Automatic annotation (TrEMBL), chains A, B:
Keywords: FAD, Flavoprotein, Oxidoreductase. It comes from the Bacteria. Belongs to the acyl-CoA dehydrogenase family. GO terms for cellular component: plasma membrane. Residues 52-130 form the Acyl-CoA dehydrogenase/oxidase N-terminal domain. InterPro entries: Acyl-CoA_Oxase/DH_mid-dom, Acyl-CoA_Oxase/DH_mid-dom_sf, AcylCo_DH-like_C, AcylCo_DH/oxidase_C, AcylCoA_DH/ox_N, AcylCoA_DH/ox_N_sf, AcylCoA_DH/oxidase_NM_dom_sf, Mycobact_Acyl-CoA_DH. This is Acyl-CoA dehydrogenase. One of its GO terms (molecular function) is oxidoreductase activity, acting on the CH-CH group of donors. Residues 240-392 form the Acyl-CoA dehydrogenase/oxidase C-terminal domain. Its cofactor is FAD. It holds the Pfam family Acyl-CoA_dh_M.
From TrEMBL, chains C, D:
Keywords: FAD, Flavoprotein, Oxidoreductase. Residues 7-118 form the Acyl-CoA dehydrogenase/oxidase N-terminal domain. This is Dehydrogenase. CDD domains: ACAD. Signal peptide: none annotated. Its cofactor is FAD. Residues 216-351 form the Acyl-CoA dehydrogenase/oxidase C-terminal domain. The keyword Ribonucleoprotein does not apply. Gene3D superfamilies: Acyl-CoA dehydrogenase/oxidase, N-terminal domain, Butyryl-CoA Dehydrogenase, subunit A, domain 2, Butyryl-CoA Dehydrogenase, subunit A, domain 3. Belongs to the acyl-CoA dehydrogenase family.
Amino acid sequence: MNFDDTPEEAAFRSKARDWISANAPRELHAGLSKLGFGQSDAGVGDPMQAAKQWQKKKQEGGWAALRWPREYGGAGASAIEQVIWQSEEGAYAKLGGAFTIGLGMCGPTLMTWGTEEDKRKRLPKLASGEEIWCQLFSEPIAGSDLAGIRTRAAPEGDEWVVNGQKIWTSGAKESDWGLLIARTDTGVAKHRGLTMFFLDMKSPGVEVRPIKQMNGDAHFNEVYFTDVRIPDAQRLGAVGQGWTVALTTLMNERMSIGGSMPTGFDELLNYAEEIETEHGRAINDPRVRSRLASYAVKATGLQYSAYRSISALSRGEEPGPENSIGKLVAGSMLQDVSRFALDLQGEYGLIIDEKLSPDNARFQRMLMRSPATRIEGGSDEILRNIIAERVLGLPADIRVDKDVAFDRIPTAASAGGR
Amino acid sequence: MNFDDTPEEAAFRSKARDWISANAPRELHAGLSKLGFGQSDAGVGDPMQAAKQWQKKKQEGGWAALRWPREYGGAGASAIEQVIWQSEEGAYAKLGGAFTIGLGMCGPTLMTWGTEEDKRKRLPKLASGEEIWCQLFSEPIAGSDLAGIRTRAAPEGDEWVVNGQKIWTSGAKESDWGLLIARTDTGVAKHRGLTMFFLDMKSPGVEVRPIKQMNGDAHFNEVYFTDVRIPDAQRLGAVGQGWTVALTTLMNERMSIGGSMPTGFDELLNYAEEIETEHGRAINDPRVRSRLASYAVKATGLQYSAYRSISALSRGEEPGPENSIGKLVAGSMLQDVSRFALDLQGEYGLIIDEKLSPDNARFQRMLMRSPATRIEGGSDEILRNIIAERVLGLPADIRVDKDVAFDRIPTAASAGGR
Amino acid sequence: MQFDFSSEQKELQTSVRRFFTDNSPNSAARGVLESTAGHDESLWKKVGEQGFLAAAIPEAQGGVGAGYLELCVVAQEAGRALAALPTVSSIYQAAEFLMAVGTPEQQAKWLPRLASGEAIGTVAVTEAAGPLNPKAITTRVTNQRLTGTKLPVADGSAADFAIVAAKDEHSGISLFIAELAADGVERTPVETVDPSRKHARLDFDGAVVEPLGAPGEGLALIERIRDRAAVLTAFEQIGGAQAALDMARDYALQRFAFGRQIGSFQAIKHMLADMYVSLELARSNAYYGAWALSVDSDRLPAAAASARVAATQAYQLCAANNIQVHGGMGFTWEFDCHLHYRRSNYLALALGGPSHWEERLIESVRVNPALKAA
Amino acid sequence: MQFDFSSEQKELQTSVRRFFTDNSPNSAARGVLESTAGHDESLWKKVGEQGFLAAAIPEAQGGVGAGYLELCVVAQEAGRALAALPTVSSIYQAAEFLMAVGTPEQQAKWLPRLASGEAIGTVAVTEAAGPLNPKAITTRVTNQRLTGTKLPVADGSAADFAIVAAKDEHSGISLFIAELAADGVERTPVETVDPSRKHARLDFDGAVVEPLGAPGEGLALIERIRDRAAVLTAFEQIGGAQAALDMARDYALQRFAFGRQIGSFQAIKHMLADMYVSLELARSNAYYGAWALSVDSDRLPAAAASARVAATQAYQLCAANNIQVHGGMGFTWEFDCHLHYRRSNYLALALGGPSHWEERLIESVRVNPALKAA
């Protein structure tokens, strides 16, 4: 048990620190630092341009896609080195949101299932930020029930013709490539009729429509497919093996290690030092202290759980479903913390205006963004099921859609359009 | 909307008050008053004798089984009169625990399903406390899943021969009569093979064994039946109609109106006025105040919900499944309140001794009793299901035991004795 | 004892609900939210014509004089319909201040117009984040002229007058009526978490005001009126919570996943059951508050605080979980879930946040233990 | 960075677990609980022989000198096994006081015997309900003679000596060692929520004592040692929480209702998932505490408080929900659920209740923000 760097780790850290101090866009640091959860304007001008510049610089310096092999544009580093890098990169990491899906999920899937040629062609461009990827999984009818997707891919010669609709696709508008799961057989059980592809997002017939979120942002999109043609060479895994391929993607989602989820604790602690309640300075108000303490153990608990994962990873263990706790705990905590902070502000807390609201409207933005956290990337309910079934070994829910041909599974429509 | 008594109600209240002041066992009042949730020794000498005396006196005075018709030993009073009586009876009501099941559940079931002769013979003795009843429903294998009971009743001439085991029977040892649900047909679906009886608890073959609870008390019993004979005349409802009859009993359980569930709020509020925390008097400690406030709205919410039920009842409406909220809220609150009170006491809170512990070990006893509240008479999970299905109209759980002959329903044994 | 609304009040509820269903679908609230409109003016006019707003204002002052229970019924339906109306500021507060401490002239000038909806009043108290106390008020009146800044002021752009808390010449906190179209008043819209009920910043620079109520009694008066407003707002909150619960229930019945209605999963069933429980506790507390308000009971402070605390919990829970039940759709601008989420958080803070009311609840329960549960 | 126990420590864990499985089944804890025995004497002897207790006591003082991480491993397994042993008093506290501030003579006299289990030490601080502060201590030492009453004192009947907090001749709070077989000491068993770890009342009437540590430093020393004990106790708590979760999970797999394993209902699945989450948060906090203890980090106060707060939450939740999963059976004396329920509530209060540690956590985090989450 050791929290301190080994000499090798310390050397790596100092190398990273030096490189960042010489190369990072220092002028953006202040804006990035104060950017809170649910806030999107870091005042960096064109965010995509800033992101691409930083990613490219990192790749040139050997700091991008740290854990990927060098031949695919990575740095061949260890899990702990990645963590050290992340802690040194700090606020600059907020520049790289556009690459999260590609580097964290699509790349590793391609690494496992793609041909050598695919990998050598695509991965370095992903690592350097030249190409952006998105993940085309969820559909309006299939969210938690991902295997219930209905987008069809029909074979035609050595191509596939895709029709259907995806939703909740982050960054679809900016993406060059997409990882697409589609149904290639409706006559077999739902998990068995799926196939995975990657496709050029500029293909004819692909239409992207942004979804306006409740907080006014539009990070997500709907993506419509009308007779979109994908070469069979861009299939990942066998026909009908799509669900297995998707599990690689989802496992890598959990594998996005290092910095644990934001929870709002630090922000609330800092804020409590600044303001007054009916009982004096908030940090001295026993009610506030008690709440802070129960948030504190969640925040540190998640952080140290992430460290435990990294330690396991560096011993060569695969990150398992136990990593589901992060978002489960952080999601409702963010909502709770933001409500509590607004309560401390009283009626004034209503104001949501970066210039007027305390702490740059941090908690107001968090309030409006946090409900999505409990849903995106696996709802609270799905995560509890994952923990119950895959960690604790409890039975699966009773399934009425198992061993039934996909086209015979009950739906809202078949139930009389309720 | 009116919280005050009408003139008629005020007259009834004053009559009740006068009668109580003239007839109640005043010497027991102090002991009964300080008796908390989970505490059993009110220092009343022989509790059963004291209970029977008070019940008999009430019946002679026309204050027993208030809402029952006079011909069955009751007083023919209204729902609101019963509430007024209960508020006046106050701590003396704690004497009557032994009659709760009989008056609240067995009597009303007999009233609905018994013959006129049964009713005239049995109900007045129940009302006067001369005869005690118990309810023989749950079994080791069938708790939440009550319809899964296995105790068999086989016809033989104009008798039934009963074999099996019941559990969680309050007051079985003291009871003269029992309300028994048994399986009379294992070849039909589980809800359809049941029949209800009442039986003399002194019948040969009935054996009662007390169950020691985790808090040391033994209010519950196991009851074993070995070739116990019940005359067919003591059948309630038709053969196979037992589930319907049981629903009457369970509905009447909810109908036990008036004084809402104890929650521990008053006790905690009083205690907070007395003790010190690290921030001075507990009642002035913002942390304590905040907790008290959230308990307060639950306690008053339940109390006023009970008043709303009474108002509905007095308009002739039947009390519905919405009354399930009482125990659901109070159960976990009692556990929470007791832990919080012990926390305020610090290490000293470990002591569970009426003479040494603060407030007569009230919160320690509550701590040790409250886990049962979340289970007995419908677990939290069952109550949430009842609210979801019967109040909100959501679909039932998927049932693998429906439309299956009882003897083919999967069990632990059939699943390989796991 | 009769702990329910009377059959006449229930009939009123039916007709008010029908009125709002016809005249204030969620799209109306959305219309205000998405525009710069201060409130739903055509709805406000109709509500005024119906006399709904005037339920608790005496006939002699242009009201209907029906009573507070009737006003609670209206409030509940307004909350359910997400009505984009200045109810909290104009009816639950401004009118109440005038009825409580207005001079006959002040009452005659404003009450009939508030009752009809012709005029809108508001309350301008807050200036900064944190609890309300004398330190938090720097606005000042000298020679009947007001200087300082108030924000956020509900309906501040639409209101004809504001009741302003300010330091008087003896440095006590007093109340004043400021007409907002007058010289020396500048109004700037302020964005809040719920733009379906707009707020403004009011800058006063020597605006002429007249005193309302006894000097130095400002904070006590605010507390007194907020107790009354808290009960009425609690009814808006339980109306909103009910609507959010209904939305969630309906969606759970409609939406299929894994070949079943999602409402058949216990995770969803029990979440909805908990929402229901929270709502029922709030409803019962609100009923008690309504009774205390209607008979001017000395239990009003405790009853109001209980109603307020429970209703805030219930609406925040129901609105947040309604999003959760809707999944990704619940987080879109297009779905109405966020209207309730916004409203629930607005109403939670409108009269001071939950912790303020928790404090007030315990203080009041200690003074008047009659509220304690049996 | 290596945030886990080493493979040697994991091997130790395996062997300690095997030891406790063989020598301390739940029935052993139940045996103590149902008898007047102060603790499980034969187990204590064996544990002493194994050297488990002595893990953190230097070899020079009769210990094993392995370290605190090893002692954490032992504590976790003792908690898991519900071991009816005086660990919290004799090892996590008395030995720590002696190592921290004992004179060489005091250390030589007691430490080897504590390490071997031959002697038992305890701590006698509490006298009344409420927080620990100078007002709460009325016991007094004059001329090296102690007068006053302490309760509850863990293992007070079995212990050879107690470290007593008392007012000294200058009215400061100091610590003293009192041998409990001496004249002027009366011990009376006191019933607590967890009789598998017995407590006593100690009445001192002029008992001879000797000072421990600097005069007037009693409360500061207690706080310092409690931080260390908190980490070790947290490991007992997470061991217990894990055992309670395992029991609940096993029962949910075994028990059928409605024709299915009850563990197939989401209500049960999600309850167990929440127990797991709580336990993992506690485990991670405890690991950090173990590290801080093992290297004597200046982050120990914050780390200890976090470990303590999280572990108390986890064990209380897991033990209570274990009863819930078991249904009626969980509430019987016969089933072992109440052993964990009792233990969880005992350990929650043993070093001061949750709110005390919440306070300490925030105070420490402010002093040393290094603990703050990234």
